[in-house]
Specification:
Blueprint: E1 35-39, E2 42-45, H1 54-59, E3 73-76, H2 91-123, E4 142-162, H3 167-170, E5 189-208, E6 212-236, E7 240-265, E8 268-290, E9 295-300, E10 303-308, E11 312-336, E12 339-359, E13 367-368, E14 370-390
Parallel strand pairs: 10-13
Antiparallel strand pairs: 1-2, 1-3, 4-5, 4-14, 5-6, 6-7, 7-8, 8-11, 9-10, 11-12, 12-14
Length: 391
């Protein structure tokens, strides 16, 4: 027989009945047996066996008062079933209480979802912000390298300086030897040069105050710039003529220049440039007598030369590195964050150039005669385009 529960302390128990068939309490009919309170291994039979009221369900059923016990749980009392009760939980309970509760729970769930979304947005702002686009106007400050290609052109006027013997060719009758009948002195002659140039450049820019730029640039280019000219004049007409030929070419060249410019827009630069220039200049000159087989020789004061028709009489060449200066300007367009296109003009002056031609055979005198072909300044013009990569 079950002992009656002592009533010494108040423990409130909310309804959590387990149905007689072993399932939890729900909103349907199910027979249950009388309820038993179990605490600390002892069972106390409930003194109430009437129907569970809606008010009991709302407020929570107060079970027996047991001193010093754990929170009781409700178990079916299967040993002494007196009668079955139809547990009826009215539809009013479901309509008046269940729906509002569900609405409240749904609202709480929505608010929790919004709050968690806001927190995620705070923690991961990159998911909710627009990706940053590339800066349309990057700084020009920094190193760059690139390549260039273009055209070069120049004009030359070649004059001659002679010794006592070779003066017979350029200034006949001076000092001692009379000219041949009908002889015409050789004079200065002109020719044009042109070619292609291309190479590499590298430099560094400093952008100042957003609108100004200073920098330094070095470049080295190969070149096919070359030109030649000749003059033919009678020496003993009508059978004999004389021809003198001159040629010059620029094998390669380079420069180390400063640049100063202004940004007319964030991506367009106009600049002036100038500095030190260097390059290899090659020059040639020779003299030949044309006509029937034969020849002649001239000797003055121990210096002489002998010429045979159809064969070279004087020749000379040299090839050396010369230095000078360059000046020019151009424009550069930054068409991508790290790439730019430029167009540039340069005037390059590598100093004076000349070559000495020496006779290949002597006459009476022991010393070989010679003359000097003066090409003037080894200058040229360059117009080129290029592309730079900026680091």
């Amino acid at each position: 027989m079950e002992a009656e529960a002592p009533k010494c302390c108040g423990l409130a128990l909310r309804i959590a009945p387990i149905l007689a068939n072993g399932t939890t309490f729900g909103a349907w009919r199910s027979p249950v047996s009388a309820l038993v309170w179990e605490t600390r291994g002892r069972r106390f039979k409930s003194s109430r066996s009437d129907h569970f009221k809606e008010s009991n369900f709302r407020a929570g059923y107060r079970g027996p008062h047991v001193c010093g016990c754990n929170v009781p749980r409700v178990l079916p009392w299967r040993h002494s079933v007196q009668r079955q009760h139809d547990l009826r939980i009215s539809g009013a309970l479901e309509s008046r209480r269940g729906r509002p509760v569900r609405r409240v729970l749904a609202a709480v769930a929505v608010l929790a979802s919004v709050a968690s979304g806001a927190e995620a947005a705070d923690q991961s702002p990159s998911l909710f912000t627009k990706a940053r686009t590339a800066d349309p106007s990057p700084s020009w400050t920094g190193f760059y390298v690139g390549g260039n290609v273009g055209g070069a052109w120049a004009n030359r006027s070649v004059g001659f300086t002679s010794d006592a013997a070779s003066a017979f060719l350029f200034n006949p009758g001076v000092p001692l030897v009379a000219p041949f009948a009908g002889q015409v002195a050789l004079s200065a002659h002109d020719f044009s040069m042109n070619g292609v140039t291309g190479g590499l450049q590298a430099g560094y820019n400093w952008q100042l105050g957003g609108k100004w730029l200073v920098g330094v640039e070095g470049d080295l280019s190969a070149s096919s710039l070359r030109g030649s000219g000749r003059e033919t004049a009678p020496i003993l007409p009508p059978a004999f003529t004389q021809t003198i030929s001159a040629e010059q070419k620029i094998d390669w060249w380079g420069s180390i220049r400063g640049r100063f410019g202004a940004l007319v827009s964030p991506s367009v630069l106009l600049y002036g440039t100038g500095g030190f220039a260097f390059g290899r200049v090659a020059t040639f000159d020779d003299y030949i007598v044309n006509g029937p087989p034969g020849g002649f020789s001239i000797s003055v004061s121990g210096t002489s030369f002998a010429c045979t028709t159809g064969l070279t009489c004087f020749t000379g060449s040299n090839s050396r590195i010369q230095t000078g200066w360059t000046l020019g300007g151009g424009g550069e367009w930054r068409f991508a964050p790290r790439w730019s296109f430029k167009a540039e003009y340069l005037y390059v002056d590598l100093g004076k150039s000349s070559v000495t031609a020496i006779a290949l055979a002597t006459g009476i005198g022991p010393n070989l005669s010679r003359y000097t072909a003066n090409f003037g300044r080894a200058d040229f013009h360059v117009a080129r385009v290029g592309v730079n990569y900026h680091f």
